[in-house]
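REQUEST FORM: STRUCTURE PREDICTION
Request ID: SP-0412
Submitted by: Lab K.M.
Chain count: 1
Length (residues): 293
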Amino acid sequence: MNRFFSGVFLTLIVSSGFKALTWIAKIAVPLFFIVILYIFFDLFFSGNENAHINSTTAKLTISEAATIVAGGFMAAALTTPDISRYCKNKKHLFWMITLCILVGEFVINGISIYIANKLNTADIVSIITHNAGIIGFLSIILSVVKVNDVNLYSSTLGLANSLEIFTGKKWNYFKLTIFVGLAGTTLSMIGILNHFVGFLSMLGVIFPPIAGVMLVDYYILKTSRKILDETREKGLLPDESTIPHVGWPAIIASILGACGGLIFNFGIPAINSILISGILYWLLIKNFFSKIE
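STATUS: Completed
RESULT:
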């Protein structure tokens, strides 16, 4: 029942709009940052060996670990526009992304790796509650809310855009948020978190193909670049009649890239999937969808 009520609470926050997300972030992010720094300095300077926590966490191969990390990075990169569109100008956008990478990925993740190795566990709940008590526990709750409200927000936004494209009509954001939130809550209640590592591995081959398509499209094929340049000067978006309504080559290449990442076990699946999708997208555009350019 705890998962049910927490899921409903989270869904109501996101359905209230973007401003509700910002208030949670203003509290959760600084608090979590302070707690992690406190644990790090306590372990680093005190040399407290009694803080060691026994763990039975399964070891991952380099290939598995790289795929999981790649999946997380790709998911974050693909959902960044959902948040960055609220930046006031290019300068704000630059610093938002740069600070997230430098502070979030390098500093916080680096510290987290040190702490996890020092305490011999990857269980974030055990780490923080064991070393920071009730304040640490509160930071976990708020951080979980923060992470998942962004996930729910981006998921609902993506679903709304997809439905609008395929059905030709706008869908109610509030109702879609409730639907996606309840679906996520249901999956949580039936035990999807027991397969979390497998889920992250799956993300590592599903999201990279999308990035592969985007990279090839922007840097190599330069699809619709002339139209985009002309409308950018006017501060407008391209007219829907001048661009494809549905990017079938991108969809096909992304699906096949993900399948390739799942099927081929050699090397790093995340890299395999991104290469397969990029190459397939280029071949499809050049041989079957050349008019798109």
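NOTES: The mean pLDDT is 80.
Reviewed by: T.R.
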